[in-house]
Amino acid sequence: MRGPEISSARLLDWVADLGRIGALPGGGVCRLALTDTDRAGRDWLVAQMEALGLTVSIDAIGNIWGLRKGLVEGAPVMMGSHIDTVATGGLYDGALGVLAGLEVIAALNEAGITTHTPLAVAAFTNEEGARFAPDMMGSGVYMGALDREEMLATVATDGSAVFGEELDRIGYHGGDTPVTPAAYLELHIEQGPVLEREGVRVGAVTGVQGISWTEYTIKGQSNHAGTTPMALRHDAGVVAAKIALAAHEIAADLGPPQVATVGVFELSPALVNVVPEKARLTVDLRNTDNELLKQAEARLQSAAEDAATAHGCTLARRSLARFDPVAFAPQVIDRVEAAATARQLSVKRMPSGAGHDAQMFAPACPTAMIFVPSKDGLSHNINEHTEAQDLVAGAQVLLDVVLDLAGGKS
Amino acid sequence: MRGPEISSARLLDWVADLGRIGALPGGGVCRLALTDTDRAGRDWLVAQMEALGLTVSIDAIGNIWGLRKGLVEGAPVMMGSHIDTVATGGLYDGALGVLAGLEVIAALNEAGITTHTPLAVAAFTNEEGARFAPDMMGSGVYMGALDREEMLATVATDGSAVFGEELDRIGYHGGDTPVTPAAYLELHIEQGPVLEREGVRVGAVTGVQGISWTEYTIKGQSNHAGTTPMALRHDAGVVAAKIALAAHEIAADLGPPQVATVGVFELSPALVNVVPEKARLTVDLRNTDNELLKQAEARLQSAAEDAATAHGCTLARRSLARFDPVAFAPQVIDRVEAAATARQLSVKRMPSGAGHDAQMFAPACPTAMIFVPSKDGLSHNINEHTEAQDLVAGAQVLLDVVLDLAGGKS
């Protein structure tokens, strides 16, 4: 007896139903936070929760959660994610974690199971940060990492709206008080290529990589590309190119899971025949080990200073973002791994390279995530895709781990 | 007896007089080709030529030249340059060569010298190419390297005017027939830092560097900076950075006069946390030796292909410009060197890194250039500056070489 089973038909119907709200003509969806389509998605979600018998709460930042009573009172085991998307989002990023939570409740209802500990399904406001920065806003406020009043005053990235006013407008400025869960679980698509590439069905996520974003600005001297001998130049662009390659060499040298990305690289005045006076580049470094991440940062800085000195340029460094790695709870990771194995699903321990609502819960309660494969590693893209069998497998592992954590038998 | 002397007062007055036409509030001048200020500069120049007794001609592309009879008939020894400027130009780029030509005529008039060969002072239309491309348009048409009708049909870079119509409008669409000179000499500011840095007064220019402009476009794959392991990336930006550094390594390896400049370097989508899908960069390679320039181009292409292959990216190459090096006439270079030495001016043989009208004459007649120092190597800049004593020294060398070539005694 392996316990209750997920209904693949019901889960896939829900994915399709929510996916129709904000559907884009060419596929994918646009449900930017606090827009009318986000409201429509929220209304749909609340209706589903109520139909499943959950008690719906909404807090002052617009987070929605539905509670299912357990045999005892107390903090619930929470399943959560988000239903907002980027402007050209897919059907699964965020939505899967919320809809699988609904499906877990539905499967338990159908099997007549009441868990020992209460359960909750949550959808957090503005995880994407696409319309209002920062991202993970709802879960950050929920767990106290972000200031609620400050977030309510946030102006949209296009300057067109204020967060709190939009929240009022769509009718989701609630007053319920968040509760710290007994445990937190989030099913999510990987948004990377690893599971698909290795043919593994389930990722037991060990934590979220630490992130270090640095902007370097190099100032040299603008000179004529023909009349200035190499030895008399102060070429800001060469310094920038050396920093970019140093970042990649550091990542190669430290090995996985260290990654390094130079996403922005600009020269000024940007003319074919003028030695660049100024260069600006960004370096995104990530590692699950904070000591290794610090080592990568220090080595990058040293390489940047050496390059600037060698070319007689000045170097300015600005930190754009810095988050320590988040480690998930070993006992929950173990249970994810065990649950997948018990269902004969291949499983791999892996870090998350992207940020998720789960990281806001990790400091306060036992937390972990379950990943399922993303076709071609694509996400934040209308072609984002996860095979139906993988959606179902992930939801089944979620159900099994929730039952394990909350205590309950059929 | 060292022959006739330049009048520094007269030369500097002329520099100041022409510099007032199109003067910018903060210094420098703007006499873009075929504008009203260019016309005012031309009118002033023609008046000076006529006052010096020169016979003024204007051809169908607007070139102006003033002829001074010699003891015999025939092709003149020509001194020339241009009086158009870039939008934020200096007082010397181009103007010096024309005004020094006037001063040579004035000094000869004053000394009562008639040369054996006739002399000419020329100002060529649109050398800068700032308002209408290409540059060196007037001298190119004069010597048959560019097609006159095609040039007359050129539309301004801002789309606002047609070359031929502007030439008519300012009244410089002449009908005189260009004559190939017996020899061509051009005094010009260096527009680079070499003479000043080495404390040398005069450059005996050996030729103009060959120029190779290449644009590389690299296509990789856009990926999430956190979720995509290094080994699974196709990072167009890394390929571009490797090409940029390869260009500099090739220049370092070949040594002077090889130079390499990466002036444009763009990534797309240019987001901090997205692996660049596309990169575009330009490489400007220059050398006086065409075989070495070809070698540099071949090595760059090979490095670019290797980098693209290593990262699984595609590479597209587009040649934006390719000019063979121009060699000036050894016997004229020798005379420039000898004249400077005779005047106790330190002199250095050097290539020109920038293009000049002189290169249009080099294939057809004995040609050379004389360089004088540019403060901080600045040009195409309102702070362009050459010390008065250097302006005078350059004009004196021009006078001495012209007398040497044209034959004439006081």
Automatic annotation (TrEMBL), chains A, B:
Keywords annotated in UniProt: Hydrolase, Metal-binding, Zinc
Binding site for Zn(2+) 1: 82, 93, 188
Cofactor: Zn(2+)
Entry binding sites for Zn(2+) 2: 93, 128, 380
CDD domains linked to this entry: M20_bAS
Cofactor note: Binds 2 Zn(2+) ions per subunit.
Molecular function GO terms recorded: hydrolase activity, acting on carbon-nitrogen (but not peptide) bonds, in linear amidines; metal ion binding
UniProt cross-references to InterPro entries, sorted A to Z: Amidase_Cbmase, Bact_exopeptidase_dim_dom, Peptidase_M20, Peptidase_M20_dimer
Annotated Gene3D superfamilies: 3.30.70.360, Zn peptidases
Record-annotated Peptidase M20 dimerisation domain positions: 207-308
Pfam family for this entry, one: M20_dimer
Keyword Metal-binding listed: yes
Family of the protein in this entry: Belongs to the peptidase M20 family.
Name used for this protein in its record: Peptidase M20 dimerisation domain-containing protein
Organism from which the protein derives: Thioclava pacifica DSM 10166
